[in-house]
């Protein structure tokens, strides 16, 4: 049976890990909101510039702004999804009385739950999180609407 001091350390790290996960998720929420605000601002500026100069070709810059911000937000949303998945595993562990009881009886936590604030490091896992972030309805909806409006503007002006 493991040492009581080691278990106490694991318990403290488990608690700190849960708090740190919440901080990371909240921090990424703030960053994602700022990215959305910047995307809309830049896109509107490009649209205004195109209409004020009467140059329909400038409307095509709107697509580059949309793509760039979509990719950036997908990256950050993918990171947030990774932290959210980890938080979900923590909650599932805490809400499973048998696993929790066993952890306290054996005085050890599962290794992936003690201070689990780092994201997976394999390229495949990071790429999967990035793609999940890009396809997330919270991300994709805004950029698809902006792209649709941009297409309508290009069609109306004939750029």
Question: How do you describe this structure in short?
Answer:
The protein has one domain. Helices cover 81% and strands 0% of the residues.
Total discrete domains: 1
Distance between the termini: 73 Å
Which of globular, elongated, flat, extended, rod-shaped describes the shape?
A: rod-shaped
Unreliable stretches (pLDDT < 50, length at least 5) are: none
Helicity level, as a percent range? over 70%
Q: What letter string, H or E per element, gives the SSE order?
A: HHHHH
Instruction: Count helical runs.
Output: 5
Sheet of most strands:
none
Radius of gyration: 22 Å
Question: Would you mind describing this structure in some detail?
Answer:
With about 160 residues, the chain is mostly helical. It has one domain. The protein has five helices and no strands. The chain has helices at about 5-55, 60-95, 95-105, 125-135, 135-155. Helix 1 (about 5-55) packs antiparallel against helix 2, helix 1 runs parallel beside helix 5 and helix 2 crosses helix 4. The model has no long low-confidence stretch (mean pLDDT about 90).
Structural topology:
Blueprint: H1 4-53, H2 61-94, H3 97-106, H4 123-135, H5 137-157
Search tags:
mainly alpha; 159 residues; rod-shaped
């Amino acid at each position: 049976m493991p040492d009581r001091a080691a278990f106490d350390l694991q318990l403290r790290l488990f608690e700190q890990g849960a708090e740190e996960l919440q901080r990371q998720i909240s921090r990424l929420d703030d960053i994602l909101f700022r990215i959305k605000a910047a995307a809309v601002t830049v896109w509107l500026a490009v649209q205004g510039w195109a209409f004020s100069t009467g140059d329909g070709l400038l409307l095509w810059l709107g697509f580059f702004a949309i793509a760039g911000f979509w990719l950036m937000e997908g990256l950050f949303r993918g990171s947030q999804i990774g932290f959210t998945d980890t938080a979900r595993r923590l909650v599932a562990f805490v809400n499973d009385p048998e696993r929790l009881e066993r952890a306290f009886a054996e005085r050890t936590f599962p290794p992936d739950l003690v201070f689990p604030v780092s994201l997976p490091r394999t390229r495949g896992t990071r790429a999967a999180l990035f793609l999940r972030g890009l396809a997330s309805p919270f991300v994709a909806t805004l950029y698809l609407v902006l792209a649709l409006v941009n297409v309508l503007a290009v069609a109306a002006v004939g750029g």
